[in-house]
Input
Amino acid sequence: MTTVGFIGSGNIGSTVARLAVEAGHRVVLSNSRGPETLADTVAELGPRAFAATSGEAAAAGDIVVVSVPVKAFPELSALPLAGKTVIDTGNYGPERDGPIPELDSASLTSSELLRRSLPDAVVVKAFNNIFFKHLRSLARPAGAPDRSYLPIAGDSAPAKAAVTAFLESLGYGVVDAGSLAGSWRQATGTPVWGTPYGPYSDEKGEPADENAIRAALATATR
Ligand SMILES: NC(=O)c1ccc[n+]([C@@H]2O[C@H](COP(=O)([O-])OP(=O)(O)OC[C@H]3O[C@@H](n4cnc5c(N)ncnc54)[C@H](OP(=O)(O)O)[C@@H]3O)[C@@H](O)[C@H]2O)c1
Output
């Protein structure tokens, strides 16, 4: 059993938490407003789910999922995440996040921006390319013919191995998409972002196998 901390427990954070609880992991959820606002969510998730402050969730996690708007990354710099594997689900959108010059000029990827706020953490990008409702509905056990795949990106082989094992436990295969600097290949608007899993209007989604994810990554341009 892994303890997974969550910084941000909205659409994608709470969906990952639900899959994690179903896979037998312990989850510690947090948001910006305080643990009391997560009481209903943890009650629904059951006895392996807890609500905490962001500092407590960061400290508790063997793996920590950061699932907040990109504009909030600078607010995370004081969290106790040194040495931890941190999964970044973030997608940059200037309409929501406001302009961020390094991202607008493509001199950094959004995951590199998170690493700048958390220099002692080990960041791996994952889950950013799938609609949360599809993430919920497309999970399948290992060996299922319709198991879907997700790309991950990062610079640490041990952290990627830990994230791969975690994603596999949730019901997904993994494609290694390269480094954090190269994680633009799975960023907003790229071929692997959303499209392989079908239209948002179909909440069930469509399974996307390893070949589909590799092919989509290979056609990314910027
Ligand atoms: N929605 C999707 O299908 C999807 C899929 C893949 C990736 N993403 C990306 O994942 C990220 C999260 O998306 P979402 O849809 O889950 O957003 P969301 O539903 O708006 O949830 C955001 C969460 O972040 C929390 N938060 C904001 N600032 C914080 C801070 N400074 N410290 C701690 N927690 C903070 C919010 O807390 P409060 O509720 O207290 O404000 C909320 O729990 C975004 O970058 C998004 O682009 C989304």
